[in-house]
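Repro:
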Amino acid sequence: MSLRRLGEGPCVPYGLRQKPGNIMETVSITTDAGAVQGACDPRFKGLLEAFADNFQTRGEVGASLCLTVEGKTVVDLWGGRKTVDGEAWDRDTVGVVFSCTKGASALCAHMAADRGLLDLDTPVTRYWPEFGQAGKEGAMVSMMLDHSVGLPGLREKLKDGAYYDYDYMVGMLERETPFWKPGTRNGYHGVTSAWTVGEMVRRSTGKRMGVFLRDEVAGPLGVDFWMGLPEEHEARVAPMIAAPVDDAARTSRIALGMRADPTGPTAQFMINSGGFSANSRAARAAEIGSATGVSNGRGLAGLYAPLANGGALNGVRLVGADTLTRMGQVSVATHEDATLMIPTRFSLGYMKSMDNRKLENTLACSAILSEAAFGHVGAGGSLGFADPGCAMSFGYSMNRMGPGILLNDRGQSLVDAAYLAMGYRTNVGGAWTR
């Protein structure tokens, strides 16, 4: 397969071209790893080429990609295989998108706030009195969203299947002593945010988060995104293929942090999981709002499309303008995340552009978007985000996990191609700019 590389031809800014319309062209490309299919607006040819090139040169096994602009789908692609030697990844194949799920969880919380049901600037104990013990009495609701509440892991050994038992995990977090005084620093709550954020939604709306997402977001929008996958959809799932544990992984910042403090937040987050397995039916069926959402590129882009267009789309309003503004504002930033051991930046529930390219020992530890964008990376490299600055939403999912903590070269190449097609000029400053 021969593809033009990005940068070889002129990049005409998207804004100078025809507005998005019904000009999608059918795609069928053969790569060494399998067929790439779908549809693409010709103005996003560079993104199509980058997606196909991931299969040809970067080891992609199966993946899906979707991009919307001004609420219109301009790229909808899928390709490869559901397993290394198995059946083809088709249009409706889905998979676990890991921490991309956090974007859906945060949306539920912000919708509750937008409706006046949840006050982000009040103590957690207003909604969850039992949480106010063991040093957490002063914790604020916002701290549950921005990873500063101090509960990235639990010290007591979790029972087998703990993550699949919602009430058990709520009780454990009620009793846990925080690793730091809430609000004084931040450390990624990689799994525990399923219940810290989840309880804020449940106690303010009366609905568990998976039900709220289905009833208030995915259903009205017609989005294929599940937090608790019904069994009848299991046949569509592509199992995740773990990244190999190589020397780079063994000497990464997070691995070094685990060895330096075996009882600290990094080690407890990584190790104390109750035997969690993302490829189990139990994991996909459970409502783990931080880690086991099931979707694909189209579902992720669809979830974020209203947020890229003022908070509403096609008659479905998720949030108002003031809430949308707050969703994209940086809430915490640090030179060393207490859990991930790298510099991080978060709004309330979402990742912001993070550029760690120039730091030592930070392979695949960046996610470079525009400064207006907000969304979430999933383990292994999946990604969903909204960019209100250019009315764009983006979704990418895959089954072969890559190295590092944030985006690997497969996902970042797609983000880069999308911004180039939209007329952005450079990301040298740490975020894509025009």
